[in-house]
Amino acid sequence: MKKKTVLLVLGFAFVLPLVGAGCASSTAPENDAVSLEQIGQLDVMIDEGKGDTAVEETDQAKAIFALSGKNFAFMMDGQEAPVLKVKKGTTVHIDFTSESGFHDWVLDEFGAATDRVQTGETVSVEFVADQVGTYEYYCSVGAHRANGMIGTFIVE
Ligand SMILES: [Cu+2]
């Protein structure tokens, strides 16, 4: 993207003097023709720039979720048992904080599990969501899972 931005700036710098010359001289239609051609090339460059932006977003595909846990539920943004949804290939980063009690955050299918933490502590785990499907994450402490300390993880 940086490279393309530089190209764009150079493109404008190159075209502007030509346009200026065309305006200054009323008897130079050839200059005007050149200017239009250059503007056409600029459009192409801008389109390429848009393409780069899309690729850049894909490269940086990372989803960060901040969840908390209590007896016996996962919470995110005030919502219980939040559904976490990502696109295949996304790097998923989970920040898990225990609001109260001893908990962890586990997602078996991706081998992802945080350390177990006490009230007020935060742990993280990161993994790549490389298989499409719907999965259940849970707390592996005691019978917390059976008591409803679960949530849904979806990879599209
Ligand atoms: Cu728990």
Descriptive notes:
- Residues 84-156 form the Blue (type 1) copper domain.
- Keywords: Copper, Electron transport, Metal-binding, Signal, Transport.
- InterPro entries: BlueCu_1 (IPR000923), BlueCu_1_BS (IPR028871), Cu_oxidase_CS (IPR033138), Cupredoxin (IPR008972).
- It holds the Pfam family Copper-bind.
- Helix 1 packs antiparallel against helix 2.
- The protein has helices at residues 2-24, 29-59; strands at residues 62-70, 73-76, 79-80, 83-86, 90-98, 106-107, 112-113, 122-129, 133-138, 150-155.
- The strands form three sheets. It has a five-stranded mixed β-sheet, with no helix packed on it. Strands 4-10-9 form a three-stranded mixed β-sheet, with no helix packed on it. The chain has a two-stranded antiparallel ribbon with strand order 6-7.
- The chain folds into two domains: 2-59; 62-155, Immunoglobulin-like (Sandwich), CATH 2.60.40.420.
- It contains two helices and ten strands; from the N terminus they run ααββββββββββ.
- It is an alpha+beta fold and 156 residues long.
- The protein is globular and about 35 Å long.
- Bound molecules: copper (II) ion.
Q: Can you tell me the CATH architecture of the largest domain? A: Sandwich
CATH topology of the largest domain, what is it called?
Answer: Immunoglobulin-like
Residues in β-strands, percent: 25-35%
Cofactors, ions, other ligands: copper (II) ion
**Biggest sheet layout:** 5 strands, mixed
The total count of helices amounts to 2
User: Biggest sheet, strands in spatial order?
Assistant: 3-2-1-5-8
Give the helix/strand class: alpha+beta
> How many runs of DSSP E, i.e. beta strands?
10
Q: Give the overall silhouette.
A: globular
The named CATH superfamily of the largest domain: Cupredoxins -  blue copper proteins
What's the rounded overall pLDDT mean?
A: 76
Stretches where pLDDT is under 50 for at least 5 consecutive residues are 1-59
**Fraction of residues in H or I helices:** 25-40%
Estimated radius of gyration: 27 Å
Intertermini distance: 27 Å
GO molecular function: copper ion binding; electron transfer activity
Organism: Candidatus Magasanikbacteria bacterium CG_4_9_14_0_2_um_filter_42_11
Keywords: Copper, Electron transport, Metal-binding, Signal, Transport
Protein name: Blue (type 1) copper domain-containing protein
